[in-house]
Amino acid sequence: MSAPLLSTRDLTVQFEGLPVLQNVSLDIARGEIVTVVGPNGSGKSTLLKALLGTVPPESGSVQRAPAISIGYVPQKLALDASLPISVARFLSLPKRQSAARIAAQLDRVGVAGLQSHPMQGLSGGQFQRVLLARALLMSPDLLILDEATQGLDQPGVARFYRLIEEVRRDMGCAVLMVSHDLHVVMSASDRVICLNGHVCCQGTPHVVRSAPEYRALFGLGTEGTLALYQHEHDHAHDAEGTHIHGPDCAHAKATLEHSHD
Amino acid sequence: MIDAFLVRAALAGLGVALATGPLGAFVVWRRMAYFGDATSHAAVLGVALALGTGVPVFGGTLAVALLMALAVSILASRGHAMDTTLGVLSHSALALGLVAVSFVTGVRVDLEAFLFGDILAVSWADVALIWGGAAVVAGLVAARWSRLLTMTLSADLAQSAGINPKREGLILTLAMAVVVAVALKVVGALLIAALLIIPSAAARLISRSPEQMATLSSVIAALAVIAGLGASWTWDTPAGPSIVVSAGAVFLILQLRPKGAKV
């Protein structure tokens, strides 16, 4: 087994003296899709910043494979109106890219022909896809997506997840996806990690996917790209309400009451 | 026959324009206008210290501007409320400089020259110093262009590509201090920030790419230098402020140009 692309050991990060992450240990292997879920304020963004190296750990370590190429898709990019920049120019950052490569990646993410558009004129969905195209142009070993599906409706999320699956299949990169959606995750995730300051639980969405309710919930339109990840649901109805921090929460049976839309 | 002092003044101004164009673009993109103010105001303190200690004015200005720029960068990275902090630092440095200059004895200090520039009095040595400093800044920004631009878009994006955003920020800080030291003689401490911002703001109106904006910013600054010197020669107006007024006029003309007009 080869060394992980990225791993943390007992990673602890503080912000103004308050712990945001405590003793987080995780590995991401080559080609693996890992989804990190957690509520707001659970330290997901801080974890990403620590993995990228913008936030220094208080203790513990972050190890990156040598010469790793990371394609990072930020949650949002505050593009100042004073900066004139076209999609093609943006895609050439930080490394110059050929027109052919730019065209190919724009085509892959479903926004072909946008090259000469100013970045500020893109819709939210187009902007997100351009951010993904830029990350793919880095020929990443690891693709890091921060809340990439925010603002998309369920079919939109399903299309985006299918795109990520295709990208992983074609390029063989590992994917680390962060999502605030605690229950619905990408079915292609090899692992789901629930974060709430520390790693609450880990599991696969597989258990839930095999549940009979699954087809009924996501059978149409989403073509199996969505899966449930079970934990922390409705504590009022859960005798083991504290299991959110237990090791077994991923294996709980799917009994969520989701409604179709 | 054009007088030699006018040639020197024009060359000095063009040298400054070379550096303020690309740096000014970053000042506008990164909303560092106040940062430019604080750094250039600190230059007055640098002048006072240089005169008091016998250090060359350029060196004293550079050192104090650099210290101020570093202090501001460190405070900004620690998340202080920058509006107030910069206001305190900027005006304190300016006032302290003005007070300190009054203590300098033995040398007749032309305070106005440092506040508003004295471009018509530059020597050939000044011109050489200005072009040297401007070349360093323009070269530094050009060489690290892609990194600086990526870092301007997003620190996280830069970091993910192996670019250290702190180092790139430091380079802009350093470039700012050099520009302040270089431009002090040309437009003076009070108007250096204007020369950074106005040509870039004007260039934004007719630019479609970051590179175009930085280049046009230098071109507009150069036009403003020539026009300002011309105005100063014709109407005997103060040269430094005339240059800034010219830049402002270019901005106004571009802002008011008919919609759809190709420039």
UniProtKB/TrEMBL annotation, chain A:
Keyword Oxidoreductase attached: no
GO molecular function: ATP binding; ATP hydrolysis activity
GO terms of biological process kind: response to zinc ion; zinc ion transport
Keyword field: ATP-binding, Cell membrane, Hydrolase, Ion transport, Membrane, Nucleotide-binding, Translocase, Transport, Zinc, Zinc transport
Top-level taxonomic group: Bacteria
Assigned EC number: 3.6.3.-
Signal peptide: none
Keyword Protein biosynthesis: no
Domain ABC transporter: 6-221
Protein name in UniProt: Zinc import ATP-binding protein ZnuC
Organism: Aquimixticola soesokkakensis
Gene: znuC
From TrEMBL, chain B:
Similarity comment text for this entry: Belongs to the ABC-3 integral membrane protein family.
Key words of the record: Cell membrane, Ion transport, Membrane, Transmembrane, Transmembrane helix, Transport, Zinc, Zinc transport
One GO location term (cellular component): ATP-binding cassette (ABC) transporter complex
Transmembrane segments: 6-29, 41-74, 86-107, 119-143, 170-201, 213-233
Membrane topology annotation: Multi-pass membrane protein
Compartments in which it is found: Cell membrane
Pfam families: ABC-3
Source organism of the structure: Aquimixticola soesokkakensis
InterPro entries membership: ABC_BtuC-like (IPR037294), ABC_TroCD (IPR001626)
Function: Involved in the high-affinity zinc uptake transport system.
An individual GO BP term: response to zinc ion
Gene3D superfamilies: ABC transporter involved in vitamin B12 uptake, BtuC
Annotated protein name in UniProt: High-affinity zinc uptake system membrane protein ZnuB
PANTHER family (UniProt xref): ABC-TRANSPORTER METAL-BINDING PROTEIN, HIGH-AFFINITY ZINC UPTAKE SYSTEM MEMBRANE PROTEIN ZNUB
Gene behind this protein: znuB
